[in-house]
Amino acid sequence: MIKLTHKQRWALLSVALYIVFVIAAITTGFLDPSKVGLQWTIFWYFCGAGLAYYFYFKNVSYREVVYYAQKLGLHKDDLKAMVPKLKETQDVPDPDKPNFFSPFAKVPITVVNELTDQLEPQAQQANIPPYK
Fold it and tell me: Transmembrane segments in this chain: where (predicted)?
């Protein structure tokens, strides 16, 4: 069996989702240029690709935070303390009970990026191998 890194698995899953979108668009004809116009067809294919990339990036970033937090022995409250400007509607990843997929709106990409920026240097100092 081929051994894939976490990033490669998420990339493969994102590409597979985009391929499913394209196949669905072609077989059902809901993005047929004769129905919606060529410009809108191109626009929606690019939107689908953008969403697939966002899905990949957000899930990899989420998993990276969970990975470093678990290796450093941090918990949800520790991560909350690292993000002082957290809004009431926002949350941080829970390293003790991580979701398979990154929550779409509850854990925004800005929070995940801020945590990654703080956790990576700590992980390097603790000689934790980089997330792959």
Answer: 12-31, 37-57
Q: Structure pTM?
A: 0.84
Tokens (6 digits) for 29: 């004809």
Number of domains in the chain: 1
* Chain segment 54-75, per-residue pLDDT in tens: 999 999 999 999 999 999 999 9
Asked if 83 and 111 count as a contact pair (C-beta separation under 8 A), the reply is yes
Is position 51 within any domain? Answer: yes
8-37: string of b/e by CB count within 10 Å (b at 16+)?
Answer: eebbeebeeebeebeeebeeeeebeeeeee
Residue 65 lies in a domain: yes
Domain range spanning residue 96?
Answer: 6-125
Q: Which residues contact 40 (CB under 8 A, 6 or more apart)?
A: 31
